[in-house]
Design a protein that fits this description.
The complex is a heterotrimer of chains A (223), B (393) and C (99). Chain A has 223 residues and is of the alpha/beta class. Chain A is built from six helices and ten strands, in the order βββαββαβαααβαβββ. In chain A, the strands form two sheets. Chain A has a six-stranded mixed sheet, with helices on both faces. Chain A has a four-stranded antiparallel sheet with strand order 2-1-4-5, with helices on one face. In chain A, helix 6 links the parallel strand 7 and strand 8. In chain A, helix 4 crosses helix 5. Chain A is globular. The longest helix of chain B has 33 residues. Chain B starts with a helix and ends with a helix. With 99 residues, chain C is mostly helical. Chain C folds into two domains: 31 residues; 67 residues, no CATH class. Helix content of chain C is 49%, strand content 0%. Chain C contains four helices and no strands. The N and C termini of chain C lie far apart (71 Å). The relative contact order of chain C is 0.09. Classes of the chains: A alpha/beta (223), B alpha+beta (393), C mainly alpha (99).
Amino acid sequence: MIKLNNITKIYDINKNNSITAVKDINLHIKDGDLIILKGASGSGKSTILSLIAGLCKPTEGEVIVDEKGISKLPDHFLSLYRRENIGFVFQKYNLIPNLSVKDNIILPLIPDNPDEDILNTKLQEVMERFTISHKKDIIVRNLSGGEQQRVAICRSMINNPKIIIADEPTANLDEKLSLDFIDILKQLKENGKTIIIATHDPLFFNLDFASKTIDIKNGKIIS
Amino acid sequence: MTINKYLIEYSINSLLRQKSKNTFIIIIFTFLIALITSIFFISNSIKYELNSTIDKLPDITIQKLHGGRIVDIDNSVIENIITIAGVQSTIGRVWGYYYFENAGVNFSIMGIDNFETQYTKSLEKVIDDSTKTDILDNNFMLVGSGVKKILNNNFFTNSFNFISNDGSFKKVKIGGVFKSDIELQSNDMILVSKELAYQILGVDKSKSTDIVVKVSNPKELNTIVNKIKLLYPNTRIITNDDLKVSYESIFDYKSGLFLTLFIISLFTFFIIIYDKTSGLSSSEKTEIGILKALGWKIDDILKEKFYEGFIISFISYILGISIAFIFVYFLHAPLLRDIFEGYSQLKTTFNLPFVIDFQILTLVFFITIPVYISATIIPSWKTATLDADEVIR
Amino acid sequence: MNKKTNSLFIFTTLLLISLLAIVTVLDIFYTTNNKTIDIKKSFVNIVGLPDLAISTETNYIRHRSLSNISTIFSDGPEHTEYATASFITNVAKISHDDK
């Protein structure tokens, strides 16, 4: 269960050009929900995703995940929270361009120093699931957009997180690949994952398996 | 504490991402370490060589000064000094320099008392057997290998014609050449009998170049020195301890070479460090942001940066000191030795004794590796403490 | 997995072994043995002059320990240093010298 209570986030608060990204946001997300955050660029949806993922701290208010407040966690515990609970697919994928597919995918596992066999098993599993294992040794900058997205998804899934967050996942994809992605989302929802997507792609607006669609405008929830 | 191999693998990949820049850094670093270490090795070996024989040098050497210049000292001083309590023996020495104009070299000439007797007793030990010639009278000399070489090059194979003080020629036979083991001590030396030294150097028979004193009890040395100074205030007195101090301070940090090379090396080193600490590029910052977003802690990121810095600096260190060892002891320091030898015409083979000094290796280790690692970690730490979101945007 | 790490470990080990080999060879063949030290001591005992014959450029470089700063200028107070070896070695400090 994810709760956002009276969340306000202001960037560059001590400077003249401070920006209020979101104001007085209240949001409840149940386990297993698929939430679509809908809104134009700059509406504040990416900020909400970052706040849930613990990538930034709110200026006011609190983020509570599974009865635990994460907003005031020190860096050490926040990193652990992200590693164990969050799978984030960034808009620009944010892969390390000079690393191979498999080296990118295992990044979230490295700090735990797992046994090599366990790591290889998890890696193989996730690569086969998203059909990218035939390219495991290829450097990611030599992959197509769709392939890179699948690598980003594998990376977000390798730790088997409860919460999947995707920021504009289909921004760089054509329609076919976008529909493929929506299929993956359906599978993940069937596996009981909590999924939150921020997008202004109309393909997402009428999904039958989506739990809720939330409109964001100028940092506030409209509906 | 187990080593995280995946982290090391990531560090290596990170280094390989900037292959040419990191190779360049390793090369510069290795060169600097090799240079500094070579200088330390050379001066250490020279000091070791000096200190291995220092106890055999005279307890007290007395020189007479006149107008700031060293002048010959009266032999009557010898009789007065030997009466001082605690003095075991006093000898007047005759020695000096002979300038061989043809070759433009300076030889050091030392006159030995009872030359022939000394020759059979102890000098034979230091002569190369293959160079010994028949000695019929006192009119022979023993020379260092450098002297022999110069004389050969100037067509003096068995003897040499000294130009005496009165302008006449004095022919002296070469009785033998000193062993190569003592090349560093004897390269430019010529030993002759005292009478011959008087003639060649033009010293008055009633005087000596300087006086050396042996004391029975080393603890009384300073007392005896003070007594001599009272008796002869116009003399300079050099004790064995002065020689020890002199040997220690021969290459200290005030001397030109150390200062110059050290400053240049440090300067280059700090330019590299400055470049690293002046901040990360935007792609490096983004990378740290991504890792944080994926759940890496600040510790993990710093550990990874530590490995990066350590790999570069440790490899440079090992390569640097290996090169220094080979350069100084196998190759005899080709360019550096020219600086130590200066304009000398008489050059040694610079066969320095091998001395392993862990202090130097540790010193070089600590002035290079931790500094470089800090320079790698500090800018990353600054970025790693920010919110991941801030860094990625 | 971790192939590069293993290669690095092997490479570093080889480097360290080479260093060790160099030092061992030097220790065996290039350290002064007792016989040589004896010969050196005999020579120095007879001759009694300090300092090594590495640079014979000038008198105050060759027998440096028997001279001090005034020796350098003994030919004239306006005398400037011309010996490059004095760039490296420091002037001797004689405790009982009038400074």
